[in-house]
Amino acid sequence: MRTATPILILAFIILIESFSACTNNTADNLNANLTNQTANLNKNANFANDNTENLKIIIKMPFEPEEAVWLEDSMNKRNAENRNFSAGDKKLTAVLRFSAEDAVKVVAQAETYRQPSPTEFATEDWFPAELIAQSDLSGNETLKGIDYAATDFSQPPYIDGRLTRIENSNYFILELYTK
């Protein structure tokens, strides 16, 4: 009986060591897997931000929007070539909704920089539901609007861009680029 006790204790210790090694390996693999998945999500997905205070740090905001959702993204090669930018440049897209009174003021100021022109704008999946519904009704998944200079919103590093007021709304789509 006495020889059985040390053997049982030894077997128990070996068993604990085996489970401990498996647990550590599983935890390490799980952490590595989670890190890879997070990196892939950040690289492949566009996550919009609705923090207006953070947006005000990045760009000028001449009037307080009632609603703001925005996204910073690196320029892909195709977009960089179309806009004469480098692939390393960044793009900031913001959808801003102003009060009716402030929307008129935004337009009045923007018109002083250059002549407005009609344009169409493709929606993104992170845009407000009202704009996505409006683009669905258009039949070609776009929004019609009037294009203005984005001068009142730009500040380094975002120094070039456009401001589009969406037809029949107080929504504006602001696109700014670094150079």
Task: Explain the layout of strands and helices.
Elements: H1 4-44, H2 52-58, E1 67-74, H3 77-82, E2 90-97, H4 100-111, E3 117-122, H5 129-138, E4 142-149, E5 158-166, E6 171-178
Antiparallel strand pairs: 1-2, 2-6, 3-4, 4-5, 5-6
What order do the SSEs take from the amino end to the carboxyl end, as H and E?
Answer: HHEHEHEHEEE
Separation, N- and C-terminal Cα atoms: 82 Å
Q: Note the beta-strand portion.
A: 25-35%
Mean pLDDT: 80
* Cα-atom radius of gyration: 27 Å
Helix content: 40-55%
Number of helices: 5
Largest sheet: 6 strands, antiparallel
Q: Strand sequence of the main sheet, in spatial order?
A: 1-2-6-5-4-3
Oligomeric state of the chains? single chain
How many strands in all? 6
Spans where pLDDT lies below 50 across 5 or more residues: 30-45
How many domains make up the 3D coordinates?
A: 2
Overview of the molecule:
By secondary structure, the protein is α+β, with helices and mostly antiparallel strands. 42% of the residues lie in helices and 26% in strands. The protein has helices spanning 4-44, 52-58, 77-82, 100-111, 129-138; strands at residues 67-74, 90-97, 117-122, 142-149, 158-166, 171-178. The longest helix is centred in the first third of the chain and has 41 residues, at 4-44. The model is unreliable at 30-45 (pLDDT under 50).
Concise summary:
The protein contains five helices and six strands. The protein is an alpha+beta fold.
